[in-house]
Predict the structure.
Amino acid sequence: MTEKGNNNTARAVVSGIFAFVLTLVLFAGTGLSVVRFGVLEKNGIISSMNEDYYRASYDNVMSEILHYTLPTNMDVKIIDNVFEYDKVKSDIKGVVVAAFEGKKYEPDLTEEKQKLENNVYAYFEQNEREAEGDVEDICREYVKDVAKLYSDKIMMPGMELVLKARNKFARIVTIVLIVLAAAAAVLIFMILRINGRADRGFKYLAWSFFANAIMLAAVPGYIFFTGRHKRLSLTPEYFYRLIVGFVGKLLKSCLAAAVVFLVLALTVTVIALFVRSRRRDKAEEAAME
Amino acid sequence: MTNTLKRIIKLLACILMPAIFAILGYLILYVGLRPVWDSVYAAANMLMGESAPNFDSQLVNIYDPTAEKPGKDIPRPSTTPEPGSTEDPGAMTPKLPIQLITMPQMNQRYGNLFCERIGLDAPVYRGDNNSILYRGVGNSIFSFMPGFGRCVLVSGHNSTYFECLQYAEVGDIIVYDTNYETYKYRVYKIEVMHEKDLKDLLEFTLFGEEKETLVLYTCYPFHATVGRKHHRLVLFCEKIEGLDIQWRREQ
C-alpha cells in the first residue's frame, strides 16, 4: 500500500475511534440532560401533581384517619368536616416545595385539632358513652395521634429522600454536563481537523449522531412500548400513577432526543453531500480550465 | 471496484457503522455498570411485578345467598351410625369435591355470618385488611375457609359488625353461609385474651390441628379508648353441620 493509502487508513481508524467516543459522550450528556432538565425539574414535578393526584391523596389521608378511628369505638362521624380538601392540598404542596429547598414542612393544625376536640367532647356528651379512662385524656391522646398521622400521611412515600438526592444530583450533573459539552466540542474539532475535508469529517459526525439516536431509542423505546415501566408494584394508586408518569415522561424524552439526533445526523449527511458535490464541481471547472 | 459498488458500500457503512457503535456502546455500559448491576437489578425486581397492578380489584362479591350451592345433590352425612354397623362413619361421610368450589380471591366477599340471637349479620371477605374490616369481617388468609377441617379465623371491628359479639354466650349457633355450602358452628368457649396469647395459641396449636374450629375475635374492651387495644374477645366454635371438602388425596 502506498504512503497515501496508509495515511488514509490511519485517518479513517482514528476518526472512527473519535466518532465512537463522541457517541458515548453525547449519549451520557443527553441522558443526564433529560433527567436533570426534564423529569427532575422542580416545576415539572409540581405540575405533575395535578388535581387527580391531590384528590387521591386527600382520600388516602382521610381513609387512614378513618381506619385509625374505627377501633377506638367512637363514631367515625367525629372526623367529618375537620380536614378540608383545600387545607390538605395546600399542606401536600407545602411539603413538596419545602423538600425541594431541603427544609421540613410542619402543617399548622391548630384549627383542625380544635374542631376534632369539640367533636370528641360532643360525641361523649350526646351519646352518654362510657369511656375507658378520663374523657379528657382520651380526647387529648386521640387528637395528638390523629395530628401525627395526618403529618405522616401528607408526605409522599420516600419524597424527602428522593428530593434530597435530586438536589445533590442537580449540582453534580451541571458540572458533569459542562465537562461533557467541552469534551464533545473537542472531539468534533479533532474529527474535522484530522480529515481536512469537511465532507469526510461530517460523515463521521453523522455516524456518531445516528449511533446516539439508536442508543437513545433502543432500550427506552423497548421499555416504553412494551409497557414494562407500568409493572412497578407501588401503592397507593395515586403514588403509582405519579411515578409511572415520571418514568413514562423520561422514556418519551429519550425517544424525543433520539429523533433530534436522527434529524441532526440526516442534516449533517445532507450538508456533507452538498459540500462534496460543490467540491467536485469546482474540481471539474479547474480541470476544464 | 465500480462506482456503484463503492456507493453501496458507503451507504451500508452509514447504517452499519452507527449500529456497531450503538452495540459497542451498550456493551461498554454493561461492562462499566457490572459492579452495581446486580444490586440495581435486585432492587428493580423487588419493585417490579408480573404485570401492571390492578387497582380496579376493589371489594368484589362472589356470594349470592339465593344461588344453588354446588353440593346440593350430595347427601348430607347422618349424625348417628345405624345400629350394628361396624363401618367407620367418618370414612363414609360424603364430601364436596374441591373442583366444584369457586375459591375466593383476596378482597372478595364469599360468605355471611349470622347469629339471630345476638343480631350478628356480617359479610365475610377473604383477607382482613383495613378496607375489608370497614365493610365487613375478614377471614384471615393465614387460616382456612369452612369445610377444610382446619382452623377458620375471622376478625372484625368491635365498633361495627362484631359489636354484637359482646352479647354472645356459650351454646350460641353461628351460621357461616358461603358461596359453596352452609356451615353451622356452636360456641363452646368465650375468652378475653391478650393479643400475644391469642397469636401463640393460633400459631402453635390451632393452626396445626386437624380439627375444624371457627375462631371469631375482635378488640376488647368495647368501651371507647384511644390507641392500640391489646386484648381480644375470642369466640371458639366447633362445627356441627356442613359438608367437608375433599381437598387432599388421602381422603
